[in-house]
Design goal:
Number of strands: 15
Strand content: 35-45%
Number of domains: 2
Structural class: mainly beta
Shape: elongated
Number of helices: 0
Helix content: under 10%
Mean pLDDT: 83
CATH class of the largest domain: Mainly Beta
């Protein structure tokens, strides 16, 4: 019984003529119109399934068994992490910011950007003495206009209640922990005492 199969060449899935077993070798022309050959793959029943190559148009990446020692003449596949993936809330590493926190009174820790939300993906805080701390959004140097709580209430008294040398750690820098409800809002920390508040916040805006 004849079966249709597909060949994936340089990221494109192309239909090839129907056969039960793969034609070997499978001929094709690379990006520079140079003729190349690749070996087809078959399933347990001998039916052609697919063949995959990685090429820059001239070089074909070498694929060897795990126990094979690489040679200097092997064609290498060079890869790196994309700057457009990962980071805070998938904003990309290049678009993710880590800001230190070092204050003894309420202050803005992130400045809002027009038409963008602020996404916080990690925050860690430690207080030097007993303190109430609230993470809020709004506008101004202490988010005093249109203040809204991001974690707890809109005042220090309705935020986190920390004992001396207490604090918290939220998030791992990738997934969102909290975000602003209003685009362009600043993000601030409000405190109830003059104790040292230290830490950092990882965030992105989009």
């Amino acid at each position: 019984m004849m079966k249709n199969c597909m060949v994936i060449i340089c990221g494109l899935m192309l239909p090839i003529s129907a056969w039960a077993a793969c034609e070997n070798p499978i001929p094709f022309n690379d990006g520079n119109s140079h003729p190349q050959n690749i070996t087809g793959l078959s399933d347990a029943n001998g039916n052609c399934i697919q063949a995959t190559i990685v090429s820059d148009g001239t070089n074909l990446a070498s694929v060897k068994a795990a126990s094979t020692v690489p040679a200097a003449t092997d064609k290498a596949l060079v890869v790196t992490l994309s700057p457009n993936s990962g980071g805070c809330a998938n904003a990309g590493v290049a678009n993710t910011t880590s800001t230190p926190i070092n204050l003894t009174s309420g202050a803005r820790i992130i400045t809002g950007t027009s038409s963008k939300q602020t996404y916080i993906c990690a925050i860690n805080l430690v207080v030097g003495a007993a303190d109430n701390v609230s993470l809020v959004e709004g506008t101004g140097s202490t988010c005093g206009t249109s203040t809204a709580g991001m974690s707890g209430g809109a005042t220090a008294a309705t935020g986190w209640n920390f004992a001396a040398n207490g604090g918290l750690t939220l998030g791992n820098g990738l997934g969102m922990v909290v975000k602003t409800a209003t685009a362009a809002d600043d993000v601030c920390l409000l405190v109830s005492s003059g104790a040292q508040l230290s830490g950092s916040v990882v965030w992105a805006q989009f």
